[in-house]
Amino acid sequence: MDAQFWDERYASRDQLFSGRPNGVLVTEVSGLPPGQALDVGCGEGGDAIWVARRGWRVTAIDVSAVALRRAAKAGADVAERVAWTRADLTVSSPPAGSFDLVSAQYFPLLREGGEGTLRSLLAAVAPGGTLLVAGHDVADWPEPGEGGHDPRDFYLPHDIAGLLGSEWTVEVDETRPRVDPAPEGTRHSHDTVLRARRR
User: Fold this and answer.
1) Is 196 a residue whose pLDDT tops 90?
2) Model confidence over 84-106: pLDDT tens digits?
3) Which residues pair with residue 195 across a beta bridge?
4) CB 80: neighbour CB atoms within 10 A?
5) CA 51/CA 29 separation, integer angstroms
6) Contact 126, 97 (CB under 8 A)
7) Alpha helix ranges (H) inside the chain
8) Residues 166-178: pLDDT tens digits?
9) Which of 74, 97, 137, 141 has its C-alpha lying 20 to 30 A from 186's C-alpha?
10) d(CA 171, CA 82)
């Protein structure tokens, strides 16, 4: 799942995702005061654009240049509020303590070799800031033999909640029905959600 993989996946269609913000993000962020946000794996920009239109300044990171070009075009009206950034978080870390919101919506973070990346994302949350992670419920994943990935290979929101230390307050750690329809070709009917505040 490197840059080539994602570039090819985005290039295979004119638009890979809906362009709308993720339902978990809208639900959990609507009441937060605007600040500095980090959108991890921003894709075609639906989340970053939505957040920026609500007054946030956003660093939107993705490994795919194809996705970032589409995102910048879609978000032309908030160009001064969003820094579209091509980066591989497995080799470069966001600045520590810099973001009032770090959002990772369905970001595929492998356990094998991914602990450093996870720790850097946690460190990027400023004191008083919010970490928001959403994933697909394991019960909705296809069996590995059906051509799907094994969810045990990835960090899930509940796993991350268990790694947070005393400097964090876990505000949400739950499974809930999806707000949005399941992505095309999947049976994802529930989301797992972690929202935590750094003290």
Assistant:
1) yes
2) 999 999 899 999 999 999 999 99
3) 132, 172
4) 8
5) 8
6) yes
7) 3-11, 23-29, 46-52, 65-74, 115-124, 157-163
8) 999 999 999 999 9
9) 74
10) 27
